[in-house]
Amino acid sequence: MYPDGEIKELNSANAEQFVEAPVIQCYTRVTATALNLSAPIRGYDVLELFAFVRPAEFCLPTISGLAAATSNKIPKNIHEDSEALIDIIKTLLNELSTQKSPQLKKTASLLDSVNWSWGESVMRALNINTEPQISEITALHAWRDLKLFPETIKPRVSAEEPILENASIMRLASMLSTESEERPSQTEYAVAITNVFSHQEYPDQPNLLVAEAGTGIGKTLAYLAPATLWAEKNNAAVWISTYTRNLQQQLDKETDKLYTDPTIKAKKVVIRKGRENYFCLLNYQEAVNQSHNNPNAIIALALISRWLLSTRSGDMLGDDLPSWLSDILGLSKVLSLADRRGECIHSACTHYKKCFVEKAIRNAQQADIVVANHALVMVQAALGGLDDTNAPSRYIFDEGHHIFDAADNAFAAHLTINETADLRRWILGGEGNKGASRSRGIKKRISDVVELLGDDSENLSIGIQNILKCALVLPAPGYKTRLLDNKFEGPAEGFFLQLKHHMYTNLVSDSPYNLELEILDLPVQLIIKAKEISVALSNLGNAVTTVLHFLDLKIKDCKDPGDNYLKHRMEGLHRTLDQKAALPLNAWNQMLETLECQTPAEFIDWFCINRYDGKDVDIGLHRHWIDPTLPFAQTLITHAQGVGITSATLKDNTGEDSIDWEYAEKHTGISHFSHPPKRSALQSPFDYENVTRVYIVNDIKKTNIHDIANAYQNLFAAAKGGALGLFTAISRLKKVHEMMHRGLENLNIPLYAQHIDPFPTNTLIDIFRSEEDSCLLGTDAIRDGIDVPGSALRLMVFDRVPWPRPSILHKARRNANEGSVYDDRITRSKLKQAFGRLIRSGDDKGVFVILDSMTPTRLLSSFPKDTPIKRLPLKEVIKETKIFLETEF
Ligand code: SF4
């Protein structure tokens, strides 16, 4: 829209002329991508204004999202979009004019002084008339306004009182008083899960429950009932482990029903994440100190400082820092403000008593319910405590069908050039360009312990010096360029370069995906280099072990209560050194030791060149457990007293109950315990016969990309949007998107796509959920993360049967299990999970389509028993989909 109100529609052909003009827009980068511009259009991004006025508030990064967040009229078409943007700006500036905070005014002045596009408007709204001064950089010292947390926390004295079934039922009833939808199986489920909170039945293992609860049972509230009761009665936390962010958010909402006072809830329910998720005030302070004379850095830090003073947790990923803000300001720069590499200097840090990471640890130590993800829980259980020594005794693993994948990641080892370079950086800190690097090495990180030990610190200092010396064998800064130029420095780089030669000699190199190679027929040069790196890593490992022994002895010496703090710090240092250095070094050495002989039967090893966008990004040797649930079970056995594993999709659906349970127990690690678990299975209450349809299209060739794109477009059009397209390969997704997006645009149906639209996956899902008639294309991450109740998801289309990828790892597991039966089980499970996303409540209806005529009938038992399933030509499927979705029920 021009200043005179005239509206012109832009496309890539005529948009270039606006690149230099200051234009008001929503999400500069997305606009540039949509218009296929070589550079973003200069101007005023309304999202930046929103971030300044309403820090730490949720808003979808679209004009409709901004309109909804500011309570303005939601625009219905692109003509209304322009007017909506003006209304949104007016609302935000009006809101600003009522704010009086001196800190806000200082930040505004600073932003104006560096010519932030909204600077003048914001200054006017805040009624600031003074000349801006660059020296007002102190406006960024937001840490000064954060509250200190209490010096000490009372240690918990926990009991071991069991919960009775009746008590669970009553607690659930009290939580349900405001629920509208009746769910009769919910009570049955709450009773079953109470077993996790009963007296330990066998002394050598936790109480185990495997519970499949179909969608719509209301299992979250049902397990929260006994869990919260047990926590209150025993003064100890129950850990609830999830896989997706959606479930964490759902748990957050569900606990509102129990704790209506937000202050009490904040104490009782804590979301706990790994420290790499949290904002590090010291990193921020160092970034501020380096930002002088750099307007872009000052703008980014000023907007972050606004968030910093409003955030409830300091969590940079998945809480109240909008992902679009990180994207706008530069994702890697923003994320470098978190403690991503474990470089915390703890009490030597001036911000220690305000630190978000410390606050999260302390809050979790006092909470009743700690919500975490599978990965964190597994690391925490394996190490017997993450940032403290308390490993919880009661766990609920929700989304239990993801345990296998989470364990697979948590217990794998990767001897790669990037991993080894990361370890060097963790030990030595930023080398070379000292001014630009904020990375702190181990020497700095232990400085407080050295100081506290005083005269006793000599051996520690010597030990650390030795670690620093031995770490010089790891890949040094500049290693990527050297590897590209076939050069190397030191034994680690020498090994990876030799591995590169070996792989490219034995592989076809033009695949855009990761290149894998089995460990066979190794050339002599590679074996020599493997021995060299092995010796170097062993020396480093020994140096680390010496320091760990020293710390062990000193920790045992700390008997005086006055030494508690020192003891706590040394325990923390021990854990970090163990986790960051000793464990990977040990795993790498074990892999190198067996390189020339047989890999131990429980593992599979292989070489891999990781590729992104067709370019090599990492190279190395990988080791995975054939059955990663084994180490998972071993870690739980040592300390857990009650473990519940639950999901809507745990069992297989062969029709033979004992076989189906066997799959559930094998896939979650429960089969590794000596005594059998309790089992519970509850059917979903939904009327699948009437609310769903499954179609297998039987007249198109899955290899003909034109047919596939045509099918997607016509099916999405028949559903009038609200459709999700799932792909088993990114390349096919991209081609289909290219062929169909214009067609849907002409029908006014918005189409979004993972790997094409520059939004993070979670934002894409949020947009899809909020725009009822939009469509979304995606791959596995979308399938796992999607939770869209209501008609915004009414059609789901798979391009092919989602068979497992034939990787070296998969082949090894297939051979160790039952061959093709194993593949069937995994595929049925994927289809079952995807179908479960379609119907989320009693009012939903939906259609599920597979565009693969080769879909075997044996896979169709993935769908609930009464679901109507038909094999039909595309034309019929389109017709039936249209009629079914248009019909009231
Ligand atoms: S204590 Fe550690 S994580 Fe916290 S602000 Fe300081 S350095 Fe960062």
The H-level CATH homologous superfamily of the largest domain, spelled out, is P-loop containing nucleotide triphosphate hydrolases
Count of DSSP H/I helices = 37
Count of extended strands: 20
Low-confidence stretches: none
What is the number of domains?
4
Overall spatial form: globular
CATH topology annotation of the largest domain: Rossmann fold
Assigned CATH class of the largest domain: Alpha Beta
Helix content range of the residues, please? 40-55%
- Percent of residues in β-strands: 5-15%
Largest beta-sheet characterization: 7 strands, parallel
Mean pLDDT: 89
What small ligands are held by the chains? iron/sulfur cluster
What is the radius of gyration?
28 Å
CATH architecture of the largest domain: 3-Layer(aba) Sandwich
Distance between the termini: 43 Å
Describe this structure in words.
47% of the residues lie in helices and 11% in strands. The protein is α/β, with parallel strands linked by helices. The protein has four domains: 12-140 and 279-338, no CATH class; 165-273 and 367-411 and 640-681, 3-Layer(aba) Sandwich (Rossmann fold), CATH 3.40.50; 434-625, no CATH class; 688-886, Rossmann fold (3-Layer(aba) Sandwich). It has a seven-stranded parallel beta sheet, with helices on both faces. A seven-stranded parallel beta sheet has the order 16-17-15-18-19-14-20, sandwiched between helices. The protein is globular. The model has no long low-confidence stretch (mean pLDDT 89). The structure holds iron/sulfur cluster. The site of iron/sulfur cluster (SF4) has 12 residues, from helix 13.
